Amino acid sequence: MGLRFRRDDARSPRPGEARSGSLLSRFARDTRAAAAVEFALVAAPFLFLLGAIFELAILFLAYQVLDTATADASRLIRTGQAQQASYTASQFKTQVCNRLYLLFDCSGVYVESVVYSNFASIPNLTSYTAYVDSSGNFDPTKVAGYNPGVGSDIVVVRVFYAYPVLFKNLLWDETSAPGGKILMTGVAVFRNEPFPWT
Q1: Is the pTM of this model over 0.70?
Q2: Is the pLDDT of residue 170 over 70?
Q3: Domains of the chain: which residue ranges?
């Protein structure tokens, strides 16, 4: 009967080393929660970017709806239907709001209709500085009144709406979205048809 010897590959650890060494090595090899940790690191930026993309898509849709509603309602002025029916500013605004569907709150819609003597006298329609206060916020009191004109008049119809945005720090700077809102406008420029009524 031969003697058996147990071969130790390493020296015996000191009393405190066994626990700490095995704990660190086990922690380094443990991958059970790796997916959860990785998701936690990228979840917030991913969800923020996803929300910004959805908001940008809704804003594009809202712009298109506002522009289409402005053009459609302006046709009532261009063809003389609004003048023949003696629309007031409130009634014409209702016509615009009827075409805005669910994306807008009609109480925040502001409409102006201005008559110009010729097309050259129309100001820059891409500038909104005349409609904001000193803080850069939209000022509804600066919106002109409602004048649909008569036959053959040159008319500019503008519809304003301060649309709320959530991801303004990613999509917009503070100058284009003061107070967490972006100023949307729909514009229609046309010459009235030569209808006989005033």
Answers
A1: yes
A2: no
A3: 39-191
